[in-house]
């Protein structure tokens, strides 16, 4: 099992953060531009764990070199079912340097966007030096 998956399923945000490279790029399913850096990515992931309910992975797909993974998940947010996928790329040091999340359906993505919008001020407080890339 992928270490990121194990950490997320255990709700261990510290373990998740330890897997992130300092220069990680996070591509959100609801924001136009990606976010760059470990501080902002960590803050966003903490918020995601607060807003998604009944989160669980249903499938894991790994590239032949072990550096690319797709983790398919299901969750609910504000009563809406969300299906999605976390696409991970690991650098030569075994750290995640690229994390892209995609979700469906549109109503679920909209509910996620609204819930994350409520978290935005807290995200900024948790990663004050972070900037959008």
Strand content: 35-45%
Helix content: 25-40%
Strand order of the largest sheet: 3-4-5-6-1-2-7
- The mean pLDDT is 91
Low-confidence stretches: none
| Class by alpha and beta content | alpha+beta
Biggest sheet architecture: 7 strands, mixed
Instruction: Output the radius of gyration.
Output: 14 Å
Give the CA-CA distance, first to last residue.
Answer: 31 Å
List the secondary-structure elements in sequence, H or E.
HHEEHEEEEHE
How many helices? The count is: 4
How many strand units? 7
**Which overall shape is indicated by the principal axes computed on the Cα atoms?**
globular
Characterise this structure:
By secondary structure, this protein is of the alpha+beta class. Helices cover 37% and strands 39% of the residues. Helix 3 packs across helix 4. 26% of the residues are buried. The mean pLDDT is 91.
Topology:
Layout: H1 3-10, H2 13-18, E1 20-27, E2 35-36, H3 38-51, E3 53-62, E4 68-77, E5 80-90, E6 96-104, H4 106-126, E7 131-132
Parallel strand pairs: 1-6
Antiparallel strand pairs: 1-2, 2-7, 3-4, 4-5, 5-6
Helix pairs in contact: 3-4
Structure characteristics:
alpha+beta, 39% strand, 4 helices, 7-stranded mixed beta sheet
Brief characterization of the structure:
By secondary structure, the protein is of the alpha+beta class. The protein is 37% helix and 39% strand.
């Amino acid at each position: 099992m992928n270490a990121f998956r194990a950490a997320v399923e255990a709700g261990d945000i510290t373990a998740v953060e330890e897997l992130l490279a300092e220069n990680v790029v996070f591509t959100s399913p609801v924001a136009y531009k990606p976010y760059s850096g470990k501080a902002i990515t960590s803050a966003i992931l903490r918020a995601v764990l607060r807003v998604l309910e009944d989160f669980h992975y249903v499938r894991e797909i790994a590239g032949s070199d072990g550096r690319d993974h797709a983790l398919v998940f299901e969750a609910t947010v504000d009563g809406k079912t969300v299906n999605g996928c976390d696409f991970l790329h690991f650098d030569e040091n075994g750290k995640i340097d690229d994390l892209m999340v995609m979700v469906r359906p549109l109503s679920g993505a909209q509910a996620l966007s609204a819930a994350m919008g409520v978290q935005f001020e807290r995200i900024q407080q948790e990663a004050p030096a972070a900037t959008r890339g």
